[in-house]
Specification:
It is a single chain. By secondary structure, the protein is α+β, with helices and mostly antiparallel strands. Helix content is 30%, strand content 12%. The strands form two sheets. Strands 1-2-3-4 form a four-stranded antiparallel beta sheet. The two termini are 21 Å apart. The structure holds zinc ion (ZN). Zinc ion binds next to loops. The site of zinc ion (ZN) has 8 residues, from loops.
Length: 153
């Protein structure tokens, strides 16, 4: 049983399905996977550990996908299923579009594949809503101080 705290940053981390870890690791990282343990996802921006168990850790460089919570560039995906980046969310919000409602519609229709496409292994909507809320609040830095809360659902 893995501890719930990231061994690197000490922050609490959510459990993540083994299929998510397998889908996200690079070939080189997958070659050293020990699959008989519970894995957790660290969503902390200040830490480059993505997955950990009681036996091993995998870092940003071990993951095929860019990890939104840990990528400060602004053009990393937020919604990995339907291709929304932070930049495209901000642009859409500026045009009065509600990407969160569009995504919710796709989720209702059963189109999402978060467990295989999103490194956090869970629905992106919390992160999408947090980005949009920060746009509405007029934060100069949309990633802002609340960013470290992303990935906790
Ligand atoms: Zn961490």
């Amino acid at each position: 049983m893995a501890s719930s705290a990231c061994p690197e940053c000490g922050r609490p981390a959510r459990r993540v399905a083994l299929r998510t870890v397998k889908a996200m690791l690079t070939g080189l990282a997958l070659r050293r996977l020990r699959p008989h343990d519970d894995f957790r996802f660290c969503g902390s921006a200040e830490c480059d550990v993505v997955y950990f168990s009681s036996e091993q850790t995998f870092r940003v460089t071990d993951v095929r996908e860019r990890v939104f919570q840990k990528d400060p560039s602004g053009d990393a995906p937020v919604c990995y299923c339907f291709d929304w980046t932070q930049a495209s969310l901000v642009a859409a919000a500026g045009r009065g579009i509600r990407p969160d409602e569009e995504i919710e519609g796709h989720v209702r229709e059963g189109r999402c594949a978060c467990d295989l496409r999103n490194p956090q292994g869970a629905c992106c909507l919390g992160n999408v809503k947090a980005v949009l809320a920060q746009v509405r609040e007029g934060s100069s830095d949309p990633r802002g101080p609340a960013r470290r809360e992303f990935g906790r659902i």
